Amino acid sequence: MIKVLVADDHPVVREGLKQILAEAQDIEVAAEAEDGHELLDKIRKQAFDVIVLDITMPGLMGLDALKQLKSEHPQLPVLILSIHPEEQYALRVLRAGASGYLTKASAPNKLTEAIRKLYRGGKYVSSSLAERLADELLGDLTKLPHETLSDREYQVMCLIASGKTVSQIADQLALSVKTVSTYRSRILEKMRMQSNAELTHYAIENKLVD
User: What's the predicted TM-score (pTM) here?
Assistant: First the structure.
């Protein structure tokens, strides 16, 4: 039996995932977590075979939780399940140690297959993402401006582009307003832009925000 922990802040989503997996004879949802802190607490107390992790959760966000999880349990496979299209986070989470990326829209048809593949030691990505990874590996992928940002800078950029104020971003990421302002300045400098409006336009053009 493949023991799975499902981490998502929406109870309805967790229930839906459990219903999908209930049809599989070889998969059991052994635990649930509604945020990154609860996820880390549970994997420290119980053994799991695969983690299904939402990338956008309150408190300790999915990307940060993933990095912490992989530092403590480097062999534990993690499937990122997200409402965001691949362009937004897939490459970053795979670099951070995830073994697969699946959009929530694909979950009803692909979730069981993805979990089994990770359990067997494989990776799970779409064919278009696999192509992009191959291009990057071969050095053929020219980096776009947002790909030069660190993970934290990228998080801040996406939040700015989605209309959040510096104070709101500081609250969401548990940072000081001054720190967020510093990130904003660094982002604008790296991307050679002058304003939040430019960042927002760029993010929309490149499908980095919904």
Answer: 0.70
